[in-house]
Design goal:
single chain; alpha+beta; Transposase Inhibitor Protein From Tn5, Chain A, domain 1; globular
């Protein structure tokens, strides 16, 4: 953790990405030091961590809060992106991923996270009974490395996740496979992935316009139900996306929401993965739900007293970095003792 969050690297990230904020008395690296103690649960609040670090910081409590509430989103996102790249290199040096989920296709799982309402609201919001949402973000997970590799934060906790798609599409690389829930199933997003020569495997949203090219036919069974497949086309921005496969899983047992089937759209060719494999691949999306669960249970990524959205999102990004460090530790242990043994027997709570 000391190496990944070194003073030199943190201050360099700040200098490269800050647009309006600047360093006067408090270095960004010192703030990262202090907030990492809060995110990792060593101190219960920002104030408690400040009291512990006051002599070393040599600035007022007010200066700390001002710096914290002014951290720009680009800086917070860069902290995760640059440190995750370094940790990915470390994992590769240890032997990388012996059994990738889908050989030849780097997988990216995309999902949204909305920070919990804050107790300490801004003055303008205090007359209102409802607690304010301090921010929202889209997170990208590499399931092979088990690393969060990118984050797209937004100050407006009430905005639609779809408003962030353009930022996501700017990072897409050719040959990648993007897996996402139905909230990401829009014409613009799927067409953007297609234009970038990337593939998608996304749960169908019922509002997506489409045209059936072949009838739905049964193709196999999985543990949870019967798999059907058909060919469809969608029409984004006046152009047709054809050769889209629509895989439908008729569940033996309805979900907790009462749904009896799950429809998945993918641009992966049949010779690469079968319809049954598509249904199994979609289940990998739950690895990012596991990430959010670990953040909630083991790290203080959502601090109720942080009413400033920039401060709250910065702490969430630091929590993602802490999760990544934990993932590297697990990968290191797995390279010695076997991944299966580590996944089944090592407690994430006690490890963190």
């Amino acid at each position: 953790m000391e190496r990944i969050l070194s003073h030199e690297q943190m201050d360099s990230i700040f200098e490269k990405n800050a647009q309006s904020q600047y360093t006067r008395e408090l270095l960004f690296s010192r703030l990262v030091d202090m907030m990492s103690l809060v995110v990792c649960g060593i101190y219960p609040s920002v104030n408690a961590a400040y009291r512990h670090k006051a002599t070393e910081l040599n600035v007022s409590r007010t200066a700390v809060y001002q710096k914290l509430s002014g951290i720009e989103l680009a800086v917070s996102a860069a902290v995760l992106k640059e440190t995750s790249a370094e940790m990915a290199t470390l994992i590769e040096l240890m032997g990388g991923v012996p059994h990738p989920i889908l050989s030849g296709y780097p997988i990216r799982i995309l999902d949204g996270n909305c920070l919990a309402p804050t107790d300490h609201r801004l003055k303008v919001l205090r007359p209102h009974a409802a607690a304010a949402l301090p921010g929202k973000s889209l997170v990208v997970l590499d399931p092979d490395l088990r690393l969060a590799i990118n984050v797209f934060p937004c100050l407006d906790g009430y905005t639609s996740e779809r408003a962030l798609f353009e930022q996501v599409l700017q990072t897409v690389k050719s040959g990648e496979l993007w897996i996402a829930d139905r909230n990401m199933c829009t014409q613009g997003f799927l067409f953007g992935l297609h234009q970038a020569s990337a593939h998608f495997l996304v749960r169908e949203h019922k509002t997506l316009p489409q045209k059936a090219l072949t009838p739905l036919s049964e193709v196999g069974q999985v543990e949870t139900g019967t798999v059907f497949e058909q060919r469809i086309s969608i029409t984004p921005r006046g152009e047709y996306l054809e050769k889209i496969r629509r895989v439908v899983l008729h569940l033996h047992k309805p979900t907790r929401d009462g749904e009896s089937e799950i429809a998945i759209l993918t641009s992966l060719p049949t010779e690469v993965v079968s319809a049954v494999q598509v249904a199994e691949l979609y289940r990998k999306r739950w690895t990012i739900e596991t990430l959010f669960h670990i953040l909630e249970k083991n790290f203080a990524g959502e601090i109720p007293s942080l009413g400033h959205p920039k401060a709250a999102l910065f702490c969430f990004c630091l929590a993602l970095v802490a999760y990544n460090i934990l993932a590297v530790i697990r990968r290191t242990l797995g390279s010695v003792h076997g991944v299966g043994k580590i996944e089944s027997s090592l407690s994430e709570f006690y490890e963190s």
